[in-house]
Amino acid sequence: MFCRNERSRVTVARGSALEMEIRRGRCRLSALVGPAQDTEIQRKMERELRMRDGACKLLAACSRREQALEAAKSLQLCSRRVLAYMAELQRRNEAELLRRAARRPSDAGPADERLPCRGTVCVSDLRIPLMWKDTEYFRNKGELHRCAVFCLLQLGAEIYDTPMVLVDRTLTDICFESAVLFSEAGPDFELKVELYSAGLSGGAAQGSTPRKLATRLSTSLGRSSGKRVRAAMDGGPGSPPGNGGTGPLLLPAPSVPGPKFHLLAHAVLSLAEVQDGFRTHDLSIASSEESSFWLPLYGSMCCRLAAQPRCMATPVRSGFLRLQQPGTEAQSGTRLYCVLRGTDLLCYRDPGEAEAGLQPALTIAVNKETRIRATEREGRGQPHGMAVTNRFGGEEVTHTLLAESRAEAQRWMEAFWQHFYDMSQWKQCCDELMKIEVPPPRRPPAMLPRQGSLYHEMALPGPAVPPSACEGLLLQDNAVAEEIRALLSSYYSDR
Questions:
Q1: Torsion of CA 227, 233, 237, 242, to 10 degrees
Q2: 3-state secondary structure of 494
Q3: How far apart are CA 427 and CA 431, in angstroms?
Q4: Which residues 6+ apart lie within 8 Å of 415 measured at CB?
Q5: Neighbours of 77 (CB within 10 A)
Q6: How far apart are CA 162 and CA 128, in angstroms?
Q7: Span 454-463, average pLDDT
């Protein structure tokens, strides 16, 4: 039932898509093994491989151009996600080896360093201007050049795509208005934006026509003919890459008929490009004018890139502190419920006010210029609280906050130091809370529900195909149709 590597305890289901990729040599088992096995990533990789096989079969059977383009896009997306999951597994394995080496007594180093908090990165209002010639755009002369384009956005192991857009000389900009969220980004993130394009012919249908499809699939009645059909629908181990582009595509795309997407341009965005507003970024062109999928790009793109660190959006620490007035004893201070969040320490009279979102009784600024030091209880020399100092108009204002115990004071001090470290790493993202757009739930394209399965594209029984042959074919391959339909349904429901 299962194949297990005894040294690393990695389990791969026999007959699964992941095992087939390993047998074909497209995926190495060594990339999956390691002390820090992540079954969740392995499950995602298995799912994407199954989706990839389903997209190959769907692409070989599509008769309408719109459906063929969506299938080719799904094939490109699944291949990239498999590569990203493999890279993430390798990175985790290397990190585990480094941790093991650091635990040796001879390699004992300094104490564990602080790690910055994670955050959410949002890309929205993505626009790519086009530069058509005057004779093409204004005079509407020359051959009509049309392409189908979409953007692929990757941050670490997270990969998302935009809806597909048909582009010709009547458009001056390629617009992707929907927002894309990455919820597990660090301050050192690198967001890759890649623009893919597929050239469209003058309107001929991509792939097989319904009558040819029905005739070819009808020959699958029988063992030898079925093998030939499956060989035509599945790419062999030595099939050349089909999705082209200049990117390092390690998984070869099966050689199936239909449109193919190529890398047209790309860009890499980092923390330095984050700004709470619309901004222009450089775009590297990866194709030439002689390519059939080429579009006249300006070499730049515009988008809104916002980031929201968790230290700015969620409370870092909360609890009761006593605000000590100058010249008074510690026991006579006002007891307040304090919440450290963003650039403020919000002080409420009770936790109910904080949960209701009421106006706090006191707000103490906590930013990159704030200074904090531990205070000591008189005569005992033990940390009891902290003094928060800010400068306003050339004057220093200090608020002394006392904790209920020494351990509680230490926890508050540690929260403050971690908060200051997070601010230093996220930089301009901690000046003020940036607005993050929440995208609507992803839905499948309009043409996919009408399709149902690839067998709905078959021609009705006619002179070329006897009715009995079509009925037998549909009954025999009903399980395959149900599997492809279930794969497409689960794929779009998880987006």
A1: 160
A2: coil
A3: 7
A4: 316, 317, 340
A5: 22
A6: 13
A7: 41
Task: Give CA–CA dist 25/20, Å, rounded.
Answer: 9
What phi, psi does 67 have (nearest 5°)? -70, -40
Q: Say yes or no to pLDDT of 468 above 70.
A: no
Average pLDDT over residues 210-232: 44
**Cα separation of 468 and 458, whole Å?**
14
Give the percent of the chain with pLDDT over 70: 63
Distance (Å) of CA 123 to CA 176, 283, 291: 10, 15, 29
Let me know: does 251 contact 235? Beta carbons within 8 Å. Answer: no
Are residues 56 and 256 in contact, defined by beta-carbon separation less than 8 angstroms?
Answer: yes
pTM of the model: 0.70
* Half-sphere exposure for 323 (CA within 13 Å, toward CB): 16
For residues 292 and 458, the model is more confident at 292
Residue appearing with tokens 């048909």 = 166
The closest of 343, 340, 342 to 319, measured between CA atoms, is: 340
Dist. CA 50–CA 483, nearest whole Å: 10
Residue 203 DSSP symbol: S
- What count of other Cβ atoms lies within 10 Å of the Cβ of residue 200? 21
